[in-house]
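Worked Example 4.2. Consider the chain below.
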Amino acid sequence: MQSLLKVNNLSKSFKHGSGIWSSYDKLAYGPVSFTLDKGQTLAIVGESGSGKSALVRTIAGLLTPTSGEIFLRGQSLPALNSQQRCTSIRMIFQDPSSSLNPKMTVGKILNAPLQLNTNLNQIQRQQQIKETLKLVELLPDYLSFYPNMLSNVQKHQVAIARAMILNPDIIMIDETLATLDISLRFKIVNLLLKIQKKKGSSYIFVAHNMHLVRHMSDQIMVLHEGKVIEKGPASIICDSPQQEQTKFLLLSHQPDYRK
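Applying the procedure from the previous section yields the following structure tokens:
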């Protein structure tokens, strides 16, 4: 069976200045290869600066890869137009407080992707917005709210709603839970799992907390200095890590972890 997403030898380098006249290429990550099936969650973990965010931003189309290929249902991702990409892959950014436009109501925030990427009329868009709010467990009353009127958790729910509004195949979650305390993180994670079960969405999940990663993920890929050092089912990676860096990540977030 064809994978929903296939990433083949993907890499990204950035140019850095090393003087007035010279520069050099610094590798952010690569080469990275993996597949993702419908309804699955892949967690990408690693220390700060390991290339996690650059990788998910490349897949989301926010960065152009230096080399490698990305296929969605067998089609080259760069060959798709912007509307096809927007309706297939959506991203939830790290901090909803800065990614939600403070001058727009929740209703306008959710309406914008529908206006730009669909042919739905106003009545159909309003129906889609209300259904998506219900999906993230918010009442229609919130449509008239501005982001500064929302709690931190509610901002996350709106960010999830904005990502889900086009019914995408894949949601990229870039350390979105870092601003929440542990109990609220699990509330949002459980909401994401409930949505996944209902909609069959696939997630690529970037996080530091290995306990959350194990709770949410089917597969884990560990990056270290831009390289994939370990990859496999979440239970195996968490119970029998092979690399020292993976063991360090587990020890950092699970004090009771033992070799």
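Confidence is low (pLDDT under 50) at residues 255-259. The longest helix spans residues 182-199. Compare this with Example 4.1 before moving on.
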